[in-house]
Amino acid sequence: MIANSLPQLWIYDTTLRDGTQREGLSVSIEDKLRIARRLDQLGIPFIEGGWPGANPKDVQFFWQLQEEPLKQAEIVAFCSTRRPNTTVASEPILQAILAAGTRWVTIFGKSWDLHVTEGLKTTLTENLAMIGDTIEYLRAQGRRVIYDAEHWFDGYKHNRDYALQTLETAIASGAEWLVFCDTNGGTLPHEITQIITDVVKYIPSGTKLGIHTHNDSDTAVANALVAVMTGVRMVQGTINGYGERCGNANLCSLIPNLQLKLGFQCIEENQISQLTETSRFVSEVVNLAPDEHAPFVGRSAFAHKGGIHVSAVERNPLTYEHIQPQQIGNCRRIVISEQSGISNVLSKARSFGIELDKNDPTTRKILERLKALESEGYQFEAAEASFELLMRQALGSRRLFFEIRGFQVHCELGQGEENTSALATVKVTVNGKNILEAAEGNGPVAALDAALRKALVNFYPQIAAFELTDYKVRILNGHTGTAAKTRVMVESGSGHQRWTTVGVSTNILEASYQAVVEGLEYGLLLHSQAEAAVIQF
Length: 537
What we know:
about 525 residues, TIM Barrel, Double Stranded RNA Binding Domain, eight-stranded parallel β-barrel, three-stranded antiparallel β-sheet
Protein backbone atom coordinates (compact mmCIF):
# COMPACT_ATOMS: atom_id res chain seq x y z
CA MET A 1 0.00 0.00 0.00
CA ILE A 2 1.10 3.59 -0.62
CA ALA A 3 2.05 5.48 2.51
CA ASN A 4 -0.63 7.93 3.64
CA SER A 5 2.03 10.61 4.11
CA LEU A 6 2.42 10.99 0.35
CA PRO A 7 0.74 14.10 -1.10
CA GLN A 8 -2.69 13.27 -2.54
CA LEU A 9 -3.67 13.90 -6.15
CA TRP A 10 -7.18 13.57 -7.51
CA ILE A 11 -7.30 11.82 -10.87
CA TYR A 12 -10.28 12.85 -13.00
CA ASP A 13 -11.03 10.62 -15.98
CA THR A 14 -12.94 12.06 -18.93
CA THR A 15 -12.61 9.14 -21.34
CA LEU A 16 -16.38 8.70 -21.49
CA ARG A 17 -16.96 12.31 -22.52
CA ASP A 18 -13.90 14.06 -23.90
CA GLY A 19 -12.30 10.79 -25.03
CA THR A 20 -15.30 9.79 -27.11
CA GLN A 21 -14.87 12.94 -29.20
CA ARG A 22 -11.95 11.24 -30.93
CA GLU A 23 -12.54 10.77 -34.64
CA GLY A 24 -13.53 7.18 -35.39
CA LEU A 25 -14.43 6.32 -31.78
CA SER A 26 -17.99 5.40 -30.89
CA VAL A 27 -19.37 3.62 -27.83
CA SER A 28 -22.71 2.18 -26.82
CA ILE A 29 -24.34 2.58 -23.40
CA GLU A 30 -23.12 -0.91 -22.53
CA ASP A 31 -19.58 0.05 -23.58
CA LYS A 32 -19.67 3.15 -21.39
CA LEU A 33 -20.87 1.16 -18.40
CA ARG A 34 -18.16 -1.47 -18.85
CA ILE A 35 -15.46 1.22 -19.06
CA ALA A 36 -16.85 3.11 -16.05
CA ARG A 37 -16.78 -0.04 -13.92
CA ARG A 38 -13.23 -0.86 -15.01
CA LEU A 39 -12.09 2.69 -14.11
CA ASP A 40 -13.85 2.32 -10.77
CA GLN A 41 -11.93 -0.90 -10.20
CA LEU A 42 -8.70 0.90 -11.09
CA GLY A 43 -9.37 3.36 -8.26
CA ILE A 44 -10.01 6.54 -10.28
CA PRO A 45 -11.65 9.04 -7.85
CA PHE A 46 -13.65 11.07 -10.42
CA ILE A 47 -15.18 9.64 -13.61
CA GLU A 48 -16.86 12.08 -15.95
CA GLY A 49 -19.73 10.14 -17.51
CA GLY A 50 -20.93 12.54 -20.17
CA TRP A 51 -23.32 15.40 -20.79
CA PRO A 52 -26.85 14.32 -19.77
CA GLY A 53 -29.39 16.11 -21.89
CA ALA A 54 -27.02 16.45 -24.84
CA ASN A 55 -28.02 13.00 -26.14
CA PRO A 56 -30.30 10.12 -25.06
CA LYS A 57 -27.34 7.75 -24.60
CA ASP A 58 -25.85 9.82 -21.79
CA VAL A 59 -29.22 10.22 -20.08
CA GLN A 60 -29.65 6.45 -19.99
CA PHE A 61 -26.06 5.96 -18.84
CA PHE A 62 -26.63 8.09 -15.72
CA TRP A 63 -29.96 6.40 -15.04
CA GLN A 64 -28.26 3.00 -15.16
CA LEU A 65 -25.64 4.10 -12.64
CA GLN A 66 -28.36 5.34 -10.31
CA GLU A 67 -29.71 1.78 -10.33
CA GLU A 68 -26.29 0.15 -9.94
CA PRO A 69 -23.83 2.70 -8.48
CA LEU A 70 -20.06 2.46 -8.76
CA LYS A 71 -18.19 1.08 -5.76
CA GLN A 72 -15.85 3.98 -4.93
CA ALA A 73 -15.62 6.55 -7.75
CA GLU A 74 -17.64 9.75 -7.95
CA ILE A 75 -19.50 9.78 -11.25
CA VAL A 76 -19.61 13.35 -12.59
CA ALA A 77 -22.12 14.99 -14.93
CA PHE A 78 -20.79 17.63 -17.34
CA CYS A 79 -22.42 20.62 -19.00
CA SER A 80 -22.00 24.27 -19.91
CA THR A 81 -23.13 27.38 -18.10
CA ARG A 82 -26.58 28.72 -18.90
CA ARG A 83 -27.05 30.37 -22.27
CA PRO A 84 -26.83 34.17 -22.65
CA ASN A 85 -29.87 36.19 -21.56
CA THR A 86 -31.78 33.29 -20.01
CA THR A 87 -32.48 32.18 -16.46
CA VAL A 88 -31.03 29.08 -14.88
CA ALA A 89 -34.43 27.77 -13.82
CA SER A 90 -35.60 27.76 -17.45
CA GLU A 91 -32.55 25.94 -18.82
CA PRO A 92 -33.42 22.38 -19.97
CA ILE A 93 -29.75 21.36 -19.85
CA LEU A 94 -29.55 22.14 -16.14
CA GLN A 95 -32.73 20.19 -15.42
CA ALA A 96 -31.17 17.20 -17.16
CA ILE A 97 -28.06 17.64 -15.00
CA LEU A 98 -30.15 17.51 -11.84
CA ALA A 99 -32.03 14.47 -13.11
CA ALA A 100 -28.73 12.64 -13.58
CA GLY A 101 -28.53 12.48 -9.80
CA THR A 102 -24.78 12.93 -9.40
CA ARG A 103 -23.30 14.56 -6.33
CA TRP A 104 -20.63 16.32 -8.42
CA VAL A 105 -21.17 18.42 -11.54
CA THR A 106 -18.51 19.89 -13.81
CA ILE A 107 -19.44 23.18 -15.47
CA PHE A 108 -17.34 24.77 -18.18
CA GLY A 109 -17.35 28.49 -18.80
CA LYS A 110 -15.59 30.88 -21.16
CA SER A 111 -12.28 32.37 -20.03
CA TRP A 112 -11.26 33.94 -23.34
CA ASP A 113 -12.95 37.20 -24.27
CA LEU A 114 -12.71 36.22 -27.95
CA HIS A 115 -15.01 33.27 -27.32
CA VAL A 116 -17.44 35.41 -25.38
CA THR A 117 -17.87 38.08 -28.05
CA GLU A 118 -17.36 35.94 -31.18
CA GLY A 119 -18.60 32.54 -30.04
CA LEU A 120 -21.40 33.34 -27.60
CA LYS A 121 -22.20 36.72 -29.22
CA THR A 122 -22.68 38.31 -25.82
CA THR A 123 -21.00 40.78 -23.48
CA LEU A 124 -18.18 40.12 -21.07
CA THR A 125 -20.45 41.11 -18.19
CA GLU A 126 -23.16 38.66 -19.25
CA ASN A 127 -20.60 35.84 -19.44
CA LEU A 128 -19.61 36.49 -15.81
CA ALA A 129 -23.30 36.36 -14.87
CA MET A 130 -23.70 33.08 -16.74
CA ILE A 131 -20.85 31.54 -14.74
CA GLY A 132 -22.07 32.85 -11.42
CA ASP A 133 -25.76 32.07 -11.91
CA THR A 134 -25.12 28.49 -13.02
CA ILE A 135 -22.80 27.60 -10.15
CA GLU A 136 -25.03 29.26 -7.55
CA TYR A 137 -28.08 27.41 -8.87
CA LEU A 138 -26.37 24.01 -8.75
CA ARG A 139 -25.03 24.71 -5.27
CA ALA A 140 -28.53 25.64 -4.12
CA GLN A 141 -29.72 22.28 -5.44
CA GLY A 142 -27.17 20.48 -3.27
CA ARG A 143 -24.57 19.80 -5.97
CA ARG A 144 -20.82 20.17 -5.59
CA VAL A 145 -19.22 21.98 -8.51
CA ILE A 146 -15.97 21.64 -10.43
CA TYR A 147 -15.42 24.64 -12.69
CA ASP A 148 -13.53 23.98 -15.95
CA ALA A 149 -12.08 27.26 -17.15
CA GLU A 150 -12.24 26.60 -20.88
CA HIS A 151 -9.46 28.06 -23.05
CA TRP A 152 -7.91 29.33 -19.84
CA PHE A 153 -4.33 29.80 -20.99
CA ASP A 154 -5.25 31.44 -24.30
CA GLY A 155 -7.72 33.68 -22.49
CA TYR A 156 -5.13 34.64 -19.90
CA LYS A 157 -2.57 35.52 -22.54
CA HIS A 158 -5.02 37.70 -24.50
CA ASN A 159 -6.87 39.42 -21.63
CA ARG A 160 -5.39 38.58 -18.27
CA ASP A 161 -7.65 40.79 -16.17
CA TYR A 162 -10.86 39.42 -17.63
CA ALA A 163 -9.70 35.79 -17.36
CA LEU A 164 -8.98 36.36 -13.66
CA GLN A 165 -12.46 37.87 -13.22
CA THR A 166 -14.02 34.62 -14.50
CA LEU A 167 -12.13 32.67 -11.82
CA GLU A 168 -13.11 35.13 -9.11
CA THR A 169 -16.76 34.75 -10.14
CA ALA A 170 -16.57 30.96 -10.03
CA ILE A 171 -14.98 31.01 -6.57
CA ALA A 172 -17.48 33.50 -5.17
CA SER A 173 -20.38 31.43 -6.52
CA GLY A 174 -19.28 28.26 -4.75
CA ALA A 175 -17.09 26.22 -7.10
CA GLU A 176 -14.90 23.83 -5.09
CA TRP A 177 -12.34 23.18 -7.83
CA LEU A 178 -10.96 25.50 -10.50
CA VAL A 179 -9.53 23.58 -13.46
CA PHE A 180 -7.20 25.31 -15.92
CA CYS A 181 -7.99 24.02 -19.42
CA ASP A 182 -5.54 24.19 -22.31
CA THR A 183 -8.42 23.54 -24.71
CA ASN A 184 -6.54 24.26 -27.94
CA GLY A 185 -3.48 22.33 -26.78
CA GLY A 186 -1.07 25.05 -27.88
CA THR A 187 0.50 26.03 -24.55
CA LEU A 188 4.03 24.89 -23.70
CA PRO A 189 5.24 23.68 -20.27
CA HIS A 190 7.14 26.83 -19.31
CA GLU A 191 4.01 28.92 -19.99
CA ILE A 192 1.90 26.58 -17.84
CA THR A 193 4.28 27.10 -14.93
CA GLN A 194 4.46 30.88 -15.35
CA ILE A 195 0.70 31.41 -15.65
CA ILE A 196 -0.34 29.13 -12.77
CA THR A 197 2.32 30.68 -10.54
CA ASP A 198 0.93 34.12 -11.34
CA VAL A 199 -2.72 33.11 -10.86
CA VAL A 200 -2.08 31.69 -7.41
CA LYS A 201 -1.14 35.20 -6.25
CA TYR A 202 -4.58 36.56 -7.15
CA ILE A 203 -6.95 33.90 -5.84
CA PRO A 204 -7.74 33.01 -2.21
CA SER A 205 -5.17 30.85 -0.46
CA GLY A 206 -6.18 27.21 -0.34
CA THR A 207 -8.26 27.30 -3.53
CA LYS A 208 -8.24 23.80 -5.02
CA LEU A 209 -6.80 23.79 -8.54
CA GLY A 210 -6.82 21.32 -11.41
CA ILE A 211 -5.35 20.92 -14.90
CA HIS A 212 -6.90 19.73 -18.18
CA THR A 213 -4.55 19.58 -21.16
CA HIS A 214 -4.87 18.63 -24.82
CA ASN A 215 -2.09 17.19 -26.95
CA ASP A 216 -2.04 19.35 -30.06
CA SER A 217 1.58 20.38 -29.36
CA ASP A 218 2.48 16.89 -28.08
CA THR A 219 2.99 18.32 -24.60
CA ALA A 220 -0.25 17.34 -22.83
CA VAL A 221 1.45 14.97 -20.36
CA ALA A 222 4.38 17.34 -19.79
CA ASN A 223 1.98 20.26 -19.25
CA ALA A 224 -0.01 18.31 -16.67
CA LEU A 225 3.17 17.26 -14.85
CA VAL A 226 4.52 20.81 -14.54
CA ALA A 227 1.08 22.00 -13.40
CA VAL A 228 1.18 19.46 -10.57
CA MET A 229 4.70 20.54 -9.66
CA THR A 230 3.38 24.12 -9.57
CA GLY A 231 0.67 23.21 -7.09
CA VAL A 232 -2.47 21.86 -8.79
CA ARG A 233 -3.98 18.75 -7.19
CA MET A 234 -6.59 17.55 -9.71
CA VAL A 235 -5.38 16.04 -12.99
CA GLN A 236 -7.84 15.46 -15.81
CA GLY A 237 -7.14 13.14 -18.72
CA THR A 238 -8.24 10.06 -20.62
CA ILE A 239 -7.18 6.45 -20.88
CA ASN A 240 -4.76 6.04 -23.82
CA GLY A 241 -4.95 9.79 -24.43
CA TYR A 242 -8.16 9.48 -26.46
CA GLY A 243 -9.76 12.79 -27.40
CA GLU A 244 -10.63 15.23 -30.14
CA ARG A 245 -7.98 16.19 -32.72
CA CYS A 246 -4.67 14.99 -31.23
CA GLY A 247 -6.16 13.76 -27.99
CA ASN A 248 -6.02 14.56 -24.28
CA ALA A 249 -3.40 14.04 -21.60
CA ASN A 250 -2.83 10.29 -21.34
CA LEU A 251 -3.60 8.99 -17.85
CA CYS A 252 -1.68 5.80 -18.63
CA SER A 253 1.47 7.95 -18.70
CA LEU A 254 0.47 10.52 -16.10
CA ILE A 255 -0.43 8.12 -13.29
CA PRO A 256 2.88 6.19 -13.25
CA ASN A 257 4.93 9.36 -13.70
CA LEU A 258 3.10 11.10 -10.86
CA GLN A 259 3.03 8.15 -8.51
CA LEU A 260 6.18 6.14 -9.23
CA LYS A 261 8.51 9.02 -10.02
CA LEU A 262 7.17 12.17 -8.36
CA GLY A 263 5.88 10.48 -5.22
CA PHE A 264 2.22 11.53 -5.33
CA GLN A 265 -0.60 9.23 -4.28
CA CYS A 266 -2.98 8.74 -7.21
CA ILE A 267 -4.30 5.23 -6.76
CA GLU A 268 -3.29 2.27 -4.60
CA GLU A 269 -0.20 0.21 -5.41
CA ASN A 270 -2.26 -2.92 -6.11
CA GLN A 271 -4.40 -0.85 -8.48
CA ILE A 272 -1.59 0.72 -10.50
CA SER A 273 -0.50 -2.79 -11.44
CA GLN A 274 -3.82 -3.01 -13.34
CA LEU A 275 -2.93 -0.04 -15.55
CA THR A 276 -1.71 -1.99 -18.59
CA GLU A 277 -4.70 -4.33 -18.47
CA THR A 278 -7.06 -1.36 -18.18
CA SER A 279 -5.44 0.39 -21.15
CA ARG A 280 -5.89 -2.67 -23.34
CA PHE A 281 -9.40 -3.32 -22.05
CA VAL A 282 -10.53 0.18 -23.01
CA SER A 283 -8.92 -0.03 -26.46
CA GLU A 284 -10.70 -3.35 -27.01
CA VAL A 285 -14.10 -1.98 -25.93
CA VAL A 286 -13.84 1.10 -28.17
CA ASN A 287 -12.57 -1.10 -31.01
CA LEU A 288 -9.30 0.73 -31.61
CA ALA A 289 -5.99 -1.05 -32.03
CA PRO A 290 -3.78 -0.46 -28.98
CA ASP A 291 -0.68 1.66 -29.49
CA GLU A 292 2.02 -0.99 -29.21
CA HIS A 293 4.68 1.69 -28.65
CA ALA A 294 2.80 3.66 -25.99
CA PRO A 295 4.96 4.54 -22.95
CA PHE A 296 4.46 2.32 -19.90
CA VAL A 297 1.53 0.22 -21.19
CA GLY A 298 2.48 -0.50 -24.81
CA ARG A 299 3.49 -4.00 -25.80
CA SER A 300 6.87 -2.64 -26.92
CA ALA A 301 7.40 -0.37 -23.90
CA PHE A 302 9.79 -2.91 -22.35
CA ALA A 303 10.83 -4.77 -25.51
CA HIS A 304 14.54 -5.25 -26.13
CA LYS A 305 15.90 -6.00 -29.58
CA GLY A 306 19.60 -5.16 -29.79
CA GLY A 307 21.88 -7.98 -28.62
CA ILE A 308 23.95 -5.71 -26.35
CA HIS A 309 20.77 -4.37 -24.72
CA VAL A 310 19.43 -7.85 -24.10
CA SER A 311 22.68 -9.05 -22.57
CA ALA A 312 22.74 -6.06 -20.23
CA VAL A 313 19.07 -6.38 -19.23
CA GLU A 314 19.59 -10.05 -18.45
CA ARG A 315 22.27 -9.02 -15.93
CA ASN A 316 20.45 -5.97 -14.53
CA PRO A 317 17.15 -4.60 -15.89
CA LEU A 318 18.04 -1.08 -14.69
CA THR A 319 20.53 -0.83 -17.55
CA TYR A 320 17.75 -0.26 -20.10
CA GLU A 321 14.47 0.03 -18.15
CA HIS A 322 13.34 3.16 -16.29
CA ILE A 323 10.90 1.26 -14.04
CA GLN A 324 10.04 -2.36 -13.36
CA PRO A 325 7.39 -3.28 -15.96
CA GLN A 326 5.39 -5.36 -13.48
CA GLN A 327 4.74 -2.22 -11.42
CA ILE A 328 2.19 -1.12 -13.98
CA GLY A 329 1.18 -4.63 -15.07
CA ASN A 330 3.36 -4.83 -18.17
CA CYS A 331 6.14 -7.32 -18.89
CA ARG A 332 9.59 -7.45 -20.39
CA ARG A 333 9.88 -8.84 -23.92
CA ILE A 334 12.94 -9.98 -25.78
CA VAL A 335 12.49 -9.32 -29.49
CA ILE A 336 13.97 -11.59 -32.10
CA SER A 337 15.32 -10.05 -35.32
CA GLU A 338 18.36 -9.88 -37.55
CA GLN A 339 19.92 -7.55 -34.98
CA SER A 340 19.69 -10.27 -32.36
CA GLY A 341 22.59 -11.88 -30.58
CA ILE A 342 22.91 -15.11 -28.62
CA SER A 343 21.41 -13.35 -25.58
CA ASN A 344 18.16 -12.70 -27.49
CA VAL A 345 17.87 -16.33 -28.54
CA LEU A 346 18.57 -17.65 -25.03
CA SER A 347 16.10 -15.27 -23.42
CA LYS A 348 13.37 -15.90 -25.98
CA ALA A 349 13.85 -19.64 -25.61
CA ARG A 350 13.33 -19.35 -21.85
CA SER A 351 10.05 -17.50 -22.45
CA PHE A 352 8.93 -20.57 -24.42
CA GLY A 353 10.04 -22.92 -21.64
CA ILE A 354 13.12 -24.02 -23.58
CA GLU A 355 16.54 -24.00 -21.92
CA LEU A 356 19.45 -23.51 -24.32
CA ASP A 357 23.18 -23.50 -23.69
CA LYS A 358 24.97 -20.58 -25.34
CA ASN A 359 27.88 -22.92 -26.13
CA ASP A 360 25.63 -25.46 -27.84
CA PRO A 361 26.16 -25.40 -31.64
CA THR A 362 22.38 -25.62 -32.04
CA THR A 363 22.01 -22.19 -30.46
CA ARG A 364 24.37 -20.68 -33.02
CA LYS A 365 22.52 -22.58 -35.75
CA ILE A 366 19.21 -21.04 -34.64
CA LEU A 367 20.71 -17.55 -34.72
CA GLU A 368 22.22 -18.06 -38.17
CA ARG A 369 18.96 -19.45 -39.51
CA LEU A 370 17.08 -16.50 -38.03
CA LYS A 371 19.33 -13.95 -39.70
CA ALA A 372 19.25 -15.79 -43.02
CA LEU A 373 15.45 -15.83 -43.07
CA GLU A 374 15.18 -12.18 -42.06
CA SER A 375 17.50 -11.25 -44.91
CA GLU A 376 14.95 -12.93 -47.19
CA GLY A 377 12.16 -10.77 -45.77
CA TYR A 378 10.87 -12.72 -42.78
CA GLN A 379 10.18 -10.71 -39.64
CA PHE A 380 10.10 -12.68 -36.41
CA GLU A 381 9.88 -9.85 -33.88
CA ALA A 382 6.16 -9.64 -34.70
CA ALA A 383 5.73 -13.37 -35.39
CA GLU A 384 6.96 -15.09 -32.27
CA ALA A 385 4.90 -18.22 -32.93
CA SER A 386 6.83 -18.83 -36.16
CA PHE A 387 10.10 -18.28 -34.31
CA GLU A 388 9.22 -20.86 -31.66
CA LEU A 389 8.42 -23.38 -34.40
CA LEU A 390 11.75 -22.55 -36.07
CA MET A 391 13.54 -23.08 -32.77
CA ARG A 392 11.82 -26.40 -32.12
CA GLN A 393 12.67 -27.52 -35.65
CA ALA A 394 16.37 -26.87 -35.00
CA LEU A 395 16.17 -28.74 -31.68
CA GLY A 396 14.36 -31.70 -33.22
CA SER A 397 11.33 -31.22 -30.96
CA ARG A 398 8.86 -29.84 -33.49
CA ARG A 399 5.83 -32.12 -33.44
CA LEU A 400 4.41 -33.05 -36.84
CA PHE A 401 0.65 -32.71 -36.34
CA PHE A 402 -0.02 -32.93 -40.09
CA GLU A 403 1.81 -32.71 -43.39
CA ILE A 404 0.65 -30.72 -46.40
CA ARG A 405 1.12 -32.65 -49.63
CA GLY A 406 -0.11 -29.87 -51.87
CA PHE A 407 -2.83 -27.33 -52.49
CA GLN A 408 -4.59 -25.60 -55.35
CA VAL A 409 -6.63 -22.42 -55.34
CA HIS A 410 -9.03 -21.43 -58.09
CA CYS A 411 -10.53 -17.93 -58.21
CA GLU A 412 -13.43 -16.83 -60.34
CA LEU A 413 -14.69 -13.30 -60.85
CA GLY A 414 -18.02 -13.17 -62.65
CA GLN A 415 -18.48 -10.41 -65.16
CA GLY A 416 -20.22 -7.45 -63.55
CA GLU A 417 -19.85 -8.95 -60.06
CA GLU A 418 -17.91 -7.25 -57.28
CA ASN A 419 -17.17 -10.32 -55.13
CA THR A 420 -14.60 -12.95 -55.97
CA SER A 421 -15.43 -16.58 -55.22
CA ALA A 422 -12.55 -18.96 -54.54
CA LEU A 423 -12.22 -22.73 -54.30
CA ALA A 424 -9.28 -24.32 -52.51
CA THR A 425 -8.27 -27.98 -52.60
CA VAL A 426 -5.72 -29.40 -50.13
CA LYS A 427 -4.00 -32.76 -49.73
CA VAL A 428 -3.06 -33.49 -46.12
CA THR A 429 -1.53 -36.46 -44.32
CA VAL A 430 -2.46 -37.00 -40.66
CA ASN A 431 -1.21 -40.03 -38.73
CA GLY A 432 -0.39 -41.80 -41.97
CA LYS A 433 -3.83 -41.17 -43.46
CA ASN A 434 -4.21 -39.12 -46.65
CA ILE A 435 -7.09 -36.63 -46.86
CA LEU A 436 -8.27 -34.63 -49.84
CA GLU A 437 -10.65 -31.78 -49.06
CA ALA A 438 -12.06 -28.73 -50.81
CA ALA A 439 -13.79 -25.62 -49.53
CA GLU A 440 -15.04 -22.29 -50.84
CA GLY A 441 -14.38 -18.81 -49.52
CA ASN A 442 -14.89 -15.19 -50.50
CA GLY A 443 -11.19 -15.02 -51.37
CA PRO A 444 -8.25 -17.40 -51.89
CA VAL A 445 -6.90 -17.17 -48.33
CA ALA A 446 -10.32 -17.70 -46.78
CA ALA A 447 -10.90 -20.72 -49.03
CA LEU A 448 -7.47 -22.19 -48.21
CA ASP A 449 -8.03 -21.69 -44.48
CA ALA A 450 -11.48 -23.31 -44.69
CA ALA A 451 -10.17 -26.32 -46.65
CA LEU A 452 -7.36 -26.92 -44.16
CA ARG A 453 -9.74 -26.75 -41.20
CA LYS A 454 -12.17 -29.10 -42.94
CA ALA A 455 -9.39 -31.62 -43.54
CA LEU A 456 -8.06 -31.49 -39.98
CA VAL A 457 -11.05 -30.93 -37.71
CA ASN A 458 -11.99 -34.61 -37.46
CA PHE A 459 -8.50 -35.36 -36.11
CA TYR A 460 -8.16 -32.19 -34.05
CA PRO A 461 -11.64 -30.94 -32.97
CA GLN A 462 -10.04 -28.00 -31.12
CA ILE A 463 -9.33 -26.39 -34.51
CA ALA A 464 -13.00 -25.38 -34.62
CA ALA A 465 -12.23 -22.84 -31.87
CA PHE A 466 -9.28 -21.28 -33.73
CA GLU A 467 -9.94 -17.98 -35.47
CA LEU A 468 -7.94 -16.05 -38.05
CA THR A 469 -8.17 -12.64 -36.38
CA ASP A 470 -5.90 -10.51 -38.57
CA TYR A 471 -4.21 -10.71 -41.97
CA LYS A 472 -1.56 -8.25 -43.11
CA VAL A 473 0.30 -8.09 -46.42
CA ARG A 474 3.51 -6.15 -47.05
CA ILE A 475 5.26 -5.78 -50.42
CA LEU A 476 9.00 -5.93 -49.66
CA ASN A 477 10.66 -4.82 -52.90
CA GLY A 478 8.03 -2.94 -54.84
CA HIS A 479 10.50 -1.73 -57.46
CA THR A 480 10.45 -5.22 -59.02
CA GLY A 481 6.77 -4.87 -59.86
CA THR A 482 4.69 -8.04 -59.96
CA ALA A 483 7.80 -10.12 -59.18
CA ALA A 484 8.11 -8.48 -55.76
CA LYS A 485 8.38 -10.53 -52.59
CA THR A 486 5.38 -10.48 -50.29
CA ARG A 487 5.38 -10.90 -46.53
CA VAL A 488 2.16 -12.10 -44.95
CA MET A 489 1.48 -11.84 -41.21
CA VAL A 490 -1.42 -13.87 -39.86
CA GLU A 491 -2.75 -13.43 -36.33
CA SER A 492 -4.76 -16.36 -34.97
CA GLY A 493 -6.62 -16.72 -31.72
CA SER A 494 -8.40 -19.14 -29.43
CA GLY A 495 -10.25 -17.61 -26.52
CA HIS A 496 -7.83 -15.31 -24.66
CA GLN A 497 -4.70 -16.55 -26.49
CA ARG A 498 -3.35 -14.97 -29.65
CA TRP A 499 -0.33 -15.82 -31.77
CA THR A 500 1.22 -14.51 -34.99
CA THR A 501 2.91 -16.38 -37.82
CA VAL A 502 4.71 -15.21 -40.95
CA GLY A 503 5.22 -16.34 -44.53
CA VAL A 504 7.34 -14.86 -47.34
CA SER A 505 7.28 -15.61 -51.06
CA THR A 506 7.10 -13.98 -54.47
CA ASN A 507 3.70 -15.71 -54.65
CA ILE A 508 1.20 -14.12 -52.28
CA LEU A 509 -0.75 -17.38 -52.01
CA GLU A 510 2.40 -19.30 -51.08
CA ALA A 511 3.25 -16.71 -48.41
CA SER A 512 -0.31 -16.86 -47.08
CA TYR A 513 -0.21 -20.66 -47.09
CA GLN A 514 2.97 -20.67 -44.98
CA ALA A 515 1.50 -18.29 -42.39
CA VAL A 516 -1.92 -19.97 -42.22
CA VAL A 517 -0.46 -23.47 -41.88
CA GLU A 518 1.93 -22.43 -39.12
CA GLY A 519 -0.93 -20.63 -37.37
CA LEU A 520 -2.92 -23.86 -37.19
CA GLU A 521 0.16 -25.85 -36.17
CA TYR A 522 1.05 -23.45 -33.37
CA GLY A 523 -2.51 -23.46 -32.07
CA LEU A 524 -2.36 -27.26 -31.87
CA LEU A 525 0.99 -27.00 -30.06
CA LEU A 526 -0.49 -24.65 -27.44
CA HIS A 527 -3.48 -26.96 -26.98
CA SER A 528 -1.28 -30.03 -26.55
CA GLN A 529 0.88 -28.21 -23.99
CA ALA A 530 -2.24 -27.17 -22.04
CA GLU A 531 -3.52 -30.75 -22.05
CA ALA A 532 -0.15 -32.04 -20.85
CA ALA A 533 -0.13 -29.50 -18.02
CA VAL A 534 -3.60 -30.63 -16.88
CA ILE A 535 -2.60 -34.30 -16.95
CA GLN A 536 0.60 -33.57 -15.01
CA PHE A 537 -1.36 -31.57 -12.43
